[in-house]
Amino acid sequence: MAATKYSHPFLDGLKPFPEGHDDVIQEVREWMKSQPHLPYISDEFILLFLHSNYYKVKESESTIEAYFTLRYNTPELFTQRDPLLPKNKVILEVTQMVALPKVTAEGHHILLYRLADTDYSKLCFADAVRVFCMFNDIKLSVDSLSEGYIVIFDMKGCSIGHLTRVTLPALRAFMQYIQVAHPARLKKIHVVHTVSFINQVMCLVKPLIHSNLYNLLNFSSDGPASVVDLEYLPEDYGGPLRSVKDLHEEQKHSMETEYREWLIESEIFKTDETKRIKKPSKGLFATLTSTFRGIDID
């Protein structure tokens, strides 16, 4: 792989570099050498995978395999990562994706996602997944080795029309990414302001959810204050922090300026299937290498 201009996965590097993990980093490094289809990555990148898997080597290797294979097989979701592309700008206008400023006592970061524009005709689901993954890559860079993430999906303003915008191939890819490829410690997923058609949503999603993720889900017909303390919330929800709109605009600006070239460059991180020694067997990685062809782009 050609040398990169930027540091990945941490734009500013991992400082200070945590000590005491040299042996497991080297173990994963040696395994990657035996997998020529995988790209070369920095020790910092390996450490991110190890940290997300609580320094379990085999689990980290599985995440690495899934991460780079998904990025190869779903170019619709992991290329065209320029935040200034018109279709990405649309998603950044119709949705608000924010990292809330205050970290919990346990060291967990809180992420909030909601609609800014309720016109479902403006939402392309595959584009939304792409920008969601871009945002989350930036969060991993900003937070370094986070102790964990609490995610809040606010469904206020969602309609049955939004459900019709979901394309199954992109949904499958999204669920695989979150469950087996995303190098982060998910602690809880709160779905708030649940809608009347939540059962239809779950009928669509539940077959794609592993039991360990399902156990993290919590549903509330009330707002975010019903699932986290007010001290962590923006003023929109009765908390002391800046508004969601202000936070979104600030973080969108960072994506479009500070992280723009970094995001574009990150498209190189994928498998080279011409170098794969052994094709994945039936099961998870067979799914990763075959399921996502022909993703619908609205």
Mean pLDDT, all residues: 91
Total DSSP E strands: 5
What structural class is derived from the secondary structure elements? Answer: alpha/beta
What is the spatial order of strands in the main beta sheet?
1-2-3-4-5
Largest sheet: 5 strands, mixed
Estimated radius of gyration: 19 Å
Low-confidence stretches: 282-287, 289-298
Measure the end-to-end span.
33 Å
Give the amount of beta strand, in percent: 5-15%
What share of residues is helical? 40-55%
Name the shape in a single word: globular
Question: Which series of helices and strands comes N to C?
Answer: HHHHHEEHEHHEHHEHHH
Detailed description of the structure:
The structure is a single chain. Strands 1-2-3-4-5 form a five-stranded mixed sheet. 34% of the residues are buried. Strand 2 (109-115), helix 6 (125-143) and strand 3 (149-154) form a beta-alpha-beta unit. The radius of gyration is 19 Å and the shape is globular. It contains 13 helices and five strands. By secondary structure, it is α/β, with parallel strands linked by helices.
Short overview:
This protein has 298 residues and is of the alpha/beta class.
Key terms:
43% helix; 5-stranded mixed sheet; 298 residues; alpha/beta; 13 helices
Draw up the topology in text.
Elements: H1 22-33, H2 43-52, H3 57-73, H4 75-78, H5 86-94, E1 95-99, E2 109-115, H6 125-143, E3 149-154, H7 160-164, H8 168-181, E4 186-192, H9 198-205, H10 211-214, E5 217-219, H11 244-256, H12 260-265, H13 284-290
Parallel strand pairs: 2-3, 3-4, 4-5
Antiparallel strand pairs: 1-2
